[in-house]
Amino acid sequence: MSDDAKEQQIADQKPANSPRRQNRRGQGWIHQRGRIWWISYSFRGVHHESSGSRNRIDAVKLLRRRLAEIGKGNLIGPDSEKTTFGDLERGLVEDYRINARRSAGRLETSLKHLRPFFGLYRAIQVTSDLVTSYVVARQAEGAANATINRELAALKRMFTLGKRGRRVELMPYIPMLKEDNIRKGFSEAGEFRAIVANLPDYLAPALETAYITGWRIRDELLTRHNSHVDLQNGWLRLEPGETKNGEGRNFPLTSELRFVLEAQVARTRELEKSTGVIIPWLFHRNGKPIKEFRRAWKTACRLAGVPDRIPHDFRRTAVRNLERAGVPRSAAMKMVGHKTESIYRRYAIADESMLREGAAKLSALHQAERDATPKIRSISEARS
Fold first, then answer.
1. Which of 225, 232, 270, 361 lies 20 to 30 A from 382 at CA?
2. Which residue from 74, 72, 85, 169 is spatially nearest to 126, judged by alpha carbons?
3. Cα gap 333→316, rounded to integer Å
């Protein structure tokens, strides 16, 4: 007997004009309100739900589906079925706003790609297969795995918040992709000077500071006020809550950094005198905060002959320079702002010059050992 025939048989067992009757525990029941058939069932309380139909068979089908969901311990329910991608998106944006998350710009970029693909779907229709189709489509557009992962992370966060708020009951499996496009670029001193020489005067001090400190340009340097520089005691400060990991940070003023910041503070004071306007920002453009610098950066890199450089290369360069200088790793992590050693090691990438320096030091050690034991000229001779 087909499912439709079984449902028709169930529907025929009780005439439409019979009074409502509750079935045994866990079975639920159907009844009419006016000409529309409704269902009722128990799951953490009694639920009443309209089938939206005048046909009793439609109510039977809906009741069977709800009882099957209850049997699996995952009642979806009418509210969850109505939740759309737009509902989940609004929940995520609100969460970012309430918690003042610093990556709101990155989120909006992710949503611009997620929205056209998932925007017409209800949450219950977003399956693992649909997520896979999205990944395939984004890869066909040339998006890097790291970029897609940021978008998938936003999608996963939407469902997490939706489930917490009982807007969804089930979450699709959203796997992360392997990221094999981690950049390993550095800015050598000569390249860096060439880039700075082609930067606008208002931007050069901020980039010079980034090269020395390894601090994030947009979130950690362009947000600095003059009050964050202590020239007397020799510190550049980030207050708790201003950093990505939430911890405060102090960078001691090296001679090079002091030279850059003293000159920048002096320029700011001259501008304040000439305009009569107080300028709170450490780095600014004619007294206004610097919002965007990508075009100026690309132009400077092109003129310097290194068009593939990105500002984040300065962060790797600063870590490498700290390693070269022999700064203890615990101190270097505090200076640059890496909370875990695994993240620090990701940035402490050995370049060719470091490897050659390491080989030279190893050769010197072996030479010292040979000088101490002249009869043994090599490891192979010792074995023989």
1. 361
2. 85
3. 12
Residue 257 C-alpha from the chain's centroid: 30
Structure tokens at 377: 């000229």
Which pLDDT does position 325 carry in this prediction?
77
Does residue 378 register a pLDDT over 50?
Answer: no
Confidence of residue 163 (pLDDT cuts 50, 70, 90): confident
Q: What's the pLDDT score for residue 324?
A: 74
In the chain, where are the structural domains located?
Answer: 3-75, 85-164, 189-347
Over residues 310-343, the pLDDT tens digits come to 887 888 788 777 777 777 766 776 777 655 555 4
Write down the pLDDT at residue 317: 80
Task: Please tell me the distance from the alpha carbon of residue 77 to that of residue 66, in angstroms, as a whole number.
Answer: 7
Q: What residues does 252 pair with on adjacent strands?
A: 235
The position carrying tokens 């132009």 is: 299
CATH number of the domain at 189-347, please? 1.10.443.10
Which letter, b or e, does each residue of 13-49 get, where b requires 16 or more Cβ atoms within 10 Å of its Cβ? ebeeeeeeeeeeeeebbbbeeeeebbbbbeeeeebeb
Token pair recorded at residue 303: 């003129």
